[in-house]
UniProtKB/TrEMBL annotation:
It comes from Myxococcus stipitatus (strain DSM 14675 / JCM 12634 / Mx s8). This is CRISPR-associated RAMP Csd3 family protein. Residues 90-115 are annotated as: Disordered. InterPro entries: Cas7_Csh2/Csh2 (IPR006482), CRISPR-assoc_prot_Cas7/Csd2 (IPR013418). Residues 90-102 have a biased composition (Basic and acidic residues). It comes from the Bacteria.
Amino acid sequence: MSEFKNRYDFVLLFDVQDGNPNGDPDAGNLPRIDPETGHGLVTDVCLKRKVRNFIQLTQEKKPGLDIFVKEKAILNVSINDAYKGLGIDLNEKPTKTEDGKKRDSKGKAQGSEVEQGRTWMCKTFFDVRTFGAVMSTGANAGQVRGPVQLTFARSVAPIVSLEHAITRMAVATEAEAEKQGGDNRTMGRKNTVPYGLYRAHGFVSPHLARQTGFSPTDLELLFKSFAHMFELDRSAARGLMAMRKVIVFKHGSELGNAPAHALFDRVKVAPVQAEKPARAFTDYAVVVETAGLPQGIEVMDLV
């Protein structure tokens, strides 16, 4: 595995048409919104879920590319598997572990065992060594701070949340059918955003990458997942979603050659006609200012 030596900062631009990109379960699954500005929001957790789904679908059963946080997973089972794979029996209660510390209780790692479990988890699961994870439950494999961090995505302009009445030409039970008097229809509601262009930011730390084993090959796969993550995660509720731009700033050093915010400010997104509501990506102009870039900065547009 080659060593990770460069810092990266990146901008993601994606859009939604006639869909709900990230519903809020505390608000009846309405599209997330900043109440003060009207801008739409998509959480970092939502974006990471799509990366995980892409990796799980395209890299299944490949060594080191399993996913820790996946649908219907029982996390403590995966943590237990780490110690089974290491040949450490946590049901025994030795007087002392290898580093001289007593184990508090059966079934829970202690001392140097936790570090071994943490290393095994990073080596086995792509999302652990990429985004990090809290694995201190159950058998305890410690915590991992991931080298890749994402912000919430925020829409470039305020969004409008539309509510639609929908009809299902059927009912679930006979009791409902009798109540409807033979008119077996069920009414419901659906919320969509007519159009929204969202912008998220991300960071890759080479220092944390060395701690988790995150490699340049992993980074290449991560950027590929950004480009294609909406293609394999379609849903009628989410409408038409597409990744429009993945703009990457590669630094020539580990510490970086410029502040991230100064680089992000070079990515300008503006409406083509300010007086007209946007309904397509072509209604926006995206410009990356490359003139006068700090020395050691390389810009890549991956989509």
